[in-house]
Amino acid sequence: MSKQNDKYNSQNLLKSKDLKWLLIDFDKTIAQQASGPNYTPGDPMPGVQEALKELQDMGYKIVVFTARHWADVIVVEKYCEDHDIPYNKVICGKPLGVLLIDDKGFHLTDWKKDLPKIKERLEK
Question: What top-level class would CATH report for the domain 17-123?
Fold first, then answer.
């Protein structure tokens, strides 16, 4: 690879410690179980507003992602705005499956209990 092309190599431009995007699932992570024929999201998960605000204050950008159809992007954005949930971007249409297997995954059970573990993992 020539030096000219080398300047466009993502490994040279972005080190993992500089990657400040956090991917947060919407249903059952930000919003409690959705219900009804319109799949209306429930109340915010306890502690989600405070946790995401704290992570955002640490310099992280919050990307909310969901398996919902792209038509629901406005539903997710409005929900976050109405409930003071900080976010930078919404991505709809993640692959639908029975299990998400990922090398960077974190299984959230409770925002208040898990936030220290999340922050510890981000510091590594």
Answer: alpha beta
